[in-house]
Amino acid sequence: MYKIVKAEELADKIYLMDVHAPRVASHCKPGQFVIVKLDDKGERIPLTICDYDKEAGTITIVFQIVGASTEKFSKLKAGDSFRDFTGPLGCASELVEEDIESLKKKKILFVAGGVGAAPVYPQVKWLHNHGIDADVIVGSKTQNMLILEKEMEAVAGSLYVTTDDGSYGRSGMVTKVIEELVNEKGNHYDVCIAIGPMIMMKFVCLLTKKLNLPTIVSMNPIMVDGTGMCGACRLQVGDEIKFACVDGPEFDGHLVDFDQAMKRSQMYKTLEGRAMLKLQEGDTHHGGCGNCGGED
Amino acid sequence: MADMLKKVPVREQDPQVRATNFEEVCLGYNKEEAMDEATRCINCKNAKCIEGCPVAINIPAFIHEVKEGNIEEAYHVIGKSSALPAVCGRVCPQESQCEGKCIRGIKGEPVSIGKLERFVADYALEHDIKPACPEAKNGHKVAVIGSGPSGLTCAGDLAKLGYDVTVFEALHELGGVLVYGIPEFRLPKQKVVAKEIDKVKELGVKFETNVVIGKSTTVDQLMEEEDFEAVFIGSGAGLPMFMGIPGENGNGVFSANEYLTRSNLMKAFDENYDTPIVAGKKVAVVGGGNVAMDAARTAKRLGAEVHVVYRRSEAELPARVEEVHHAKEEGIIFDLLTNPKEILVDENDAVKGMKVIKMELGEPDASGRRRPVEIPGSEYEIELDTVIMSLGTSPNPLISSTTKGLEVNNRKCIIATEEDGKTSKAAVYAGGDAVTGAATVILAMGAGKAGAKGIHEYLSNK
């Protein structure tokens, strides 16, 4: 059992938890992820690592409610436990493996969308701790879905916050901010790291291709084991098929087939929707609307 | 009295009924049937069956005890050589091992050694007969990576010799391929696998789940930081292969590993569990091995019409004869001498069919089997919504790529000697599918035994 030592609601439907998992904490690096399973009957859910404390032996996870399992996670309080917590999985971010001196010469731009701010944060923090200040764009649908603004501010070079509806910070999509920084302000970046919803990463990549700005994305497709065993997370990257769990989760964004990846991520939507309904309706759930023939 | 030429028949669930449930197919012998079958063993002095067994169980000795009705004694005879008899009695390919060598088989059917082993092991689980007590602890720490057949066997043997053994498992359940790969209807998880692992725990073996060696820690760190004096790697062959044909990333194309892991490990077939599985209405399973049969029979139980698509003919099917027979009884359709060319998808990338081509057998290839050759112009399309690729698996490089000085061959298999599991790295031993590539449970157990012997010799002489 893996004890939750802290649990808080960061924003609307977005939660943060510190979980005691010393083996994971002792080996984890920015860019990696964990697989979390609630109880005997639970699913294995991949979640990115937001932060880690090697001394306390804890891992910070951030997740948004997207289905029945994350809905159940959100009900947990400090003192509760996850039955299983495995990791760190996947490869560490390329940045942390690079030579620090050559890294110091680079101008780095991070683009985070929604809960994507969570996996971006440890990378920016790691760079900051190594004397490198990266620029960070954080995008969110609205003000009450914005997360980690203060934390990001403390470690970023310049932080640009934008909301789709203009309720806070700048107004508009993250791509608008990238264009502004590069085209209007004339900023030069050597590399862009974009993490967020697939549709955001797709449009960031379309733009950075035009801007000739190399872009790394972090993929979070459907997974089961997270160790290379099932192949559910396979992606088309250039001419090759890659497994996000062991070859990634980071890839060259200009080579990823996002359209295919987005279609693949829809595979269980109907089943997920039914599971969510069953959870919400509890004992009143009857497996159908009465006209549709139920779950058959 | 048993017919000396024929096995005492074993009771099975009716094919029509079992094709709709996940209960075990074979019901096994009761004591009376087992004692009856045991009388067929002529207790050969120079018993060939023992030679046929990768872990060299003293087969005539245990069958003799069954004949006398001393089932507990029979269990202890088997226990000297095997830690997982209830598993082996179910999934070993006896026809090519012990039973394949049985003298009775020359004129008639061999003694039903597998079913007798299963009966003895099930009796021991039911009556909670404890395994023989280990020797006094010797204080030496050994790490075993993987809780599948080779790891469990190695751990059990070392514990019996007094070692302080810890098994590290990457997944959340113990058993490796016994829980994620082999379906419930062939090998019940709670009733058999979990209970047999409990017996290994009773020997004093410790288990830690959710530890991915190569990620959560490394082999080198286990030895340097956690004081393990030797390591046995039994991490299996978990990486699935795909064909590399167009449409393979379509929605509805699964590796057999994914399909079976969802159903077996995550219990997606049971609606009380959260993991989803796409049942499919019409399913093609590509491949002809035991895993293909498992995937096909699972899809059938989930309600699909199932076709096994295999490029050679029936005689070349690598699956056990019993599995093919069971699959046919349950209504699986075999499209033989047929090979996929392309998976057809709709505008949402969902599978809608498969383009296949007819094959004929040509000259024998390196494996000695006649090579399948395409018949020009014989392509046709079949309508489908699900395709399960069961083309074999290869070892996961997570461990080999993170362990200094551990050599692998060009198929990413760890190089280790057959007799004692010794690798290129001092104090590190390996066995099972991680060394051989995908093979059988019992061969992995044999390799686990060899590894335990190698580690014992190494630590005794250190």
Topology:
The complex is a heterodimer of chains A (about 300) and B (about 450).
Chain A: E1 2-11, E2 14-20, H1 22-27, E3 33-37, E4 45-53, E5 58-64, H2 68-74, E6 81-82, E7 84-89, H3 94-97, H4 100-104, E8 108-113, H5 117-129, E9 135-140, H6 149-155, E10 159-163, E11 170-171, H7 174-184, E12 191-195, H8 198-210, E13 215-218, E14 234-237, E15 240-243, H9 244-247, E16 250-252, H10 258-265, H11 269-281
Parallel strand pairs in A: 8-9, 8-12, 9-10, 10-11, 12-13
Antiparallel strand pairs in A: 1-2, 1-6, 2-5, 3-4, 3-7, 4-5, 13-16, 14-15
Helix pairs in contact in A: 7-8, 8-10
Chain B: H1 15-18, H2 31-38, H3 48-52, H4 59-67, H5 71-79, H6 85-91, H7 98-101, H8 113-126, E1 141-145, H9 149-160, E2 164-168, H10 177-180, H11 189-202, E3 206-208, H12 219-225, E4 230-233, E5 239-240, E6 253-255, H13 256-265, E7 282-286, H14 290-301, E8 305-309, H15 321-329, E9 333-335, E10 338-345, E11 351-364, E12 370-374, E13 380-383, E14 386-389, E15 393-394, H16 397-400, E16 428-430, H17 433-436, H18 441-460
Helix pairs in contact in B: 2-4, 4-5, 4-8, 5-8, 6-8, 9-18, 13-14
Written overview of the protein:
The complex is a heterodimer of chains A (296) and B (462). Chain A is an alpha/beta fold. Chain A folds into two domains: 88 residues, Translation factors (Elongation Factor Tu (Ef-tu), domain 3, Beta Barrel); 125 residues, Nucleotide-binding domain of ferredoxin-NADP reductase (FNR) module (Rossmann fold). Chain A has eleven helices and 16 strands. Chain A has a seven-stranded antiparallel sheet. In chain A, a hairpin with a 2-residue loop joins strand 1 and strand 2. In chain A, helix 7 runs parallel beside helix 8 and helix 8 runs antiparallel to helix 10. Chain A is globular. The C terminus of chain A is likely disordered. Chain B is an alpha/beta fold and 462 residues long. Chain B folds into three domains: 112 residues, Alpha-helical ferredoxin (Fumarate Reductase Iron-sulfur Protein, Chain B, domain 2); 164 residues, FAD/NAD(P)-binding domain (3-Layer(bba) Sandwich); 154 residues, FAD/NAD(P)-binding domain (3-Layer(bba) Sandwich). Helices cover 34% and strands 16% of the residues of chain B. Chain B contains 18 helices and 16 strands. A five-stranded parallel sheet of chain B has the order 3-2-1-4-16, with helices on both faces. In chain B, strands 6-14-7-8-9 form a five-stranded parallel sheet. In chain B, helix 2 crosses helix 4, helix 4 packs across helix 8 and helix 6 packs antiparallel against helix 8. Chain B is globular. The N and C termini of chain B lie far apart (56 Å). The mean pLDDT of chain B is 93. Chains A and B meet through helix 1, strand 7, strand 14, helix 10 and helix 11 of A and strand 5 and helix 13 of B.
